[in-house]
Amino acid sequence: MNLKFVDSALPELRQLEHLLELASPHLNSQVLANVSYQDHLLPIHAISLGSTDTSKPVMTFVGGVHGLERIGSQVLLAFLEGIIGRLAWDVSLHHLLEQVRLNFIPLLNPVGMATHRRSNGNSVDLMRNAPVDSHEQTAFLVGGQRISPVIPWYRGKAGEPMQAEAQALVNFMQKETFNSPFSLALDCHSGFGLHDRIWFPYARSRFQPIQHLGEVFHLRDLLFQAYPYHSYKFEPQAKHYLCHGDLWDYLYEQSLAQPTTFIPLTLEMGSWRWVRKNPAQLLKAVGLFHPIKPHRVKRVLRSHLVLMEFFIRACASYQNWLYDGKSLNMDQKATQLWYDN
């Protein structure tokens, strides 16, 4: 692989591979797939650390699904860098890692990121590529379309296998998390609205809640108790738009047949406020999805550290809250909050 190309087009991949070299004794890493771009083969790395006991819970962080939303990858890399920096001295971190396994897939769509495109190298939107369909009216085009790969949100041809990147994520999650009694996933995106939002499935239905709705509301309640002054909006994705082919809808459905409780979440960073402060950034290809200004990038990189730390601790401590009986009572509250209207 040409290092000059990586340095210029994919500094995130360069940073990730530097972190792998830096912390190789403490991490397990694997290449889930290699995707081709021109004369380059670009790897999709997965990094794991913490307990290898399959009876322990698993927390998975994913970024870079959409190539234009590179801030999601950068947030995860900043968080991973901080964890690696603490491994040499932080006793409490080592105690925590004995109770939980952490997975990181910071850059799922390297070709999209290298080419400043939402889609992968085949012009397919990975988050519209899973074999699940909404039976309700979806947003025109945005909800996933099979008209043309030239138009954004292209799902791919009907009946074709999932794209290599999407299949790599599905295979990894099924193998590495579905054997655990409890697992959380956080997929980092940007580009919607003025607020940072935490979304959960389904993306395909406004009227059908997931089976673990009470557990999701319970997790939301824990976040509100632990950090009462946070500014995240916690809600189903379908509150804003419906789509076909959502990978987390698909994986959640797959998990229901396994002996696990799996809760996939999406961090949707509200990029419109970055544009509002600096409208000139719309002149750049990634301007709608990235802070651009260096001081704003740094602010975003540090602003979600507490949230990710919270999810790790909630995952590690799941037995203290998941089975306390409160989730059953919260199912009705969740329905009233998110679905009664």
Can you describe this structure?
The chain is an alpha/beta fold and 341 residues long. The chain has helices spanning 3-9, 11-22, 70-86, 91-97, 110-114, 164-176, 213-226, 247-255, 272-277, 294-303, 305-316, 326-338, and strands at 28-37, 40-50, 58-63, 101-105, 182-190, 197-200, 233-236, 261-269. The protein is built from twelve helices and eight strands. Strands 1-2-4-3-5-8-6-7 form an eight-stranded mixed sheet, sandwiched between helices. α1 packs across α2 (11-22) and α3 packs across α10. The N and C termini lie far apart (53 Å). The mean pLDDT is 94.
- Structural category is alpha/beta
Q: Estimate percent helicity.
A: 25-40%
Gross morphology is globular
* Helix and strand element order: HHEEEHHEHHEEHEHEHHHH
Number of strands: 8
**N→C terminal distance:** 53 Å
Number of helices: 12
Which residue ranges are poorly predicted, with pLDDT under 50 across at least 5 consecutive positions? none
Oligomer: single chain
- Main beta-sheet strand count, sense and barrel state: 8 strands, mixed
Strand content: 15-25%
Which strand order do you get reading across the main beta sheet?
1-2-4-3-5-8-6-7
Average pLDDT works out at 94
Radius of gyration (Å): 19 Å
